[in-house]
Amino acid sequence: MTGTPRTAERHRKTKETDITVRLNLDGEGKADVQTGIGFLDHMLEGFAKHALVDLHVRCKGDLHIDGHHTTEDVGIVMGLAAADAVGDMKGITRFGHAYIPMDETLTRAAMDFAMRPYLVWKVDFSRDKIGDMDTELFKEWFQAFATNGGMCLHVENLYGENNHHIAESCFKACARAFKMAVSLDPRQAGAVPSTKGSLGS
């Protein structure tokens, strides 16, 4: 292990959004998030806390239209920052998983951080909105985060009734799986965790 700081900063500007993300994989769970969507801010603050990453997000998006571009593009930039921060992937645990209960709700997430992006999303909501956020946008964030981060990510809500609990447990489960996957395993001794000898392209 080199002791190199596992941090990244990404900026992405389009006609729809202007986003800056700073990420420290070896942080303390500190979050400074402003996306313009209150519930998304709440979810990302929880992600940082339970992944034990330091996360800074600033987004100016076309919320006069709706929250789609903001939600998806924040996922894109966070995924890109995560891939940058992991770097050559030497020494990481690679796989992570978590079960997160929240009262009547239980959600499972499993991750392979191997630059082979894929999302399995088995989550249903009984309401169209939670706070100021459309529930259909949660999948968009997870899809963008997994695809641009190079993660194979499976998220499944096993059961639950309260839509807030369902959404929050998805983010927390992803966070804990992410924390495990990017953690450094001293037994890897700086090696890439693959029989191929490399991960990604």
UniProtKB/TrEMBL annotation:
Compartments where located: Cytoplasm
CDD domains listed in its UniProt record: IGPD (cd07914)
Protein name: Imidazoleglycerol-phosphate dehydratase
The protein's annotated pathway: Amino-acid biosynthesis; L-histidine biosynthesis; L-histidine from 5-phospho-alpha-D-ribose 1-diphosphate: step 6/9
GO molecular function: imidazoleglycerol-phosphate dehydratase activity
SUPFAM superfamilies: Ribosomal protein S5 domain 2-like
Catalysed reactions listed for this entry: D-erythro-1-(imidazol-4-yl)glycerol 3-phosphate = 3-(imidazol-4-yl)-2-oxopropyl phosphate + H2O
Chief location: cytoplasm
Keyword Amino-acid biosynthesis: yes
Organism: Parvularcula lutaonensis
Gene3D superfamilies registered for this protein in UniProt: Imidazole glycerol phosphate dehydratase, domain 1
Pfam families (UniProt xref): IGPD
UniProt entry keywords in alphabetical sequence: Amino-acid biosynthesis, Cytoplasm, Histidine biosynthesis, Lyase
Enzyme class: lyase
EC number, UniProt record: 4.2.1.19
Family that this chain belongs to: Belongs to the imidazoleglycerol-phosphate dehydratase family.
InterPro entries: IGPD_sf, ImidazoleglycerolP_deHydtase, ImidazoleglycerP_deHydtase_CS, Ribosomal_Su5_D2-typ_SF
